[in-house]
Amino acid sequence: MKHILIFGPPGAGKGTQAKLLVDKYKFMHLSTGDMLRDEIKRSTEIGLRAKAIIDSGQLVSDEIVAEMVRLRIRNMKDDAGIIFDGFPRTLAQARKLDEIMNGEKQEIAMMIAIDVHDEEIIKRILERGKISQRSDDRDINTIKNRIDTYNRQTAILADYYKQQAKFKSVDGIGTVEDIFKNICKLIEE
Ligand code: AP5
Ligand code: MG
Known about the structure:
This protein is 56% helix and 14% strand. It is of the alpha/beta class. The longest helix has 15 residues, at 140-154. The structure holds BIS(adenosine)-5'-pentaphosphate and magnesium ion. BIS(adenosine)-5'-pentaphosphate binds at residues 8, 10-16, 32-33, 36, 53-54, 57-60, 65, 86-87, 89, 93, 124-125, 128, 146, 174, 176, 179.
């Protein structure tokens, strides 16, 4: 099994590329953002707590997110591996993930970062906000807070995986298809 982290700022194209990878390689898609939005939709206790945090552009607590991930990994079946999308997002989450994976006798193969500059991601998210159901896509201040949160808490994870020689990156500007081809090359190398 091959487990891959898709990394990058909000709107970089993590979800878009993760879906294509799932179709091609039969990975399991693990998006903590999608999981949290599902909790909100079902008005669960986690959902009720997460809603205001997500709408402010900050991060939901490491404990809540790590527990959701742990349960999901435990229920993994015959998938070719896991595509992690939007997790880990803090150093604490990355350490927790190592612990969970060790417990399952599994290992993260690589982190693939999608590089996109701020101007482009703001444009993409605002564009999607016109049609998506995502309340965190509509307001420019929320989007800026999401980017700020990424820069303050998440970006450093690149170093964590560089130190383990697991870090790779692709240019995230271009067509979805071209970016996908470049990601596949990294996976198959
Ligand atoms: P999450 O759902 O993970 O959102 P995000 O990281 O802000 O990123 P997005 O999903 O908006 O973007 P994406 O990179 O997936 O890009 P996409 O493919 O959609 O998290 C939401 C919130 O949940 C967080 O702010 C936090 O509060 C909470 N949360 C989630 N995980 C957490 C965790 N681990 N810990 C704590 N809190 C957590 O593409 C974006 C748009 O661009 C789309 O419209 C797409 O069609 C378009 N697009 C894609 N590729 C291209 C391209 N090549 N060219 C042009 N347009 C493109
Ligand atoms: Mg996403």
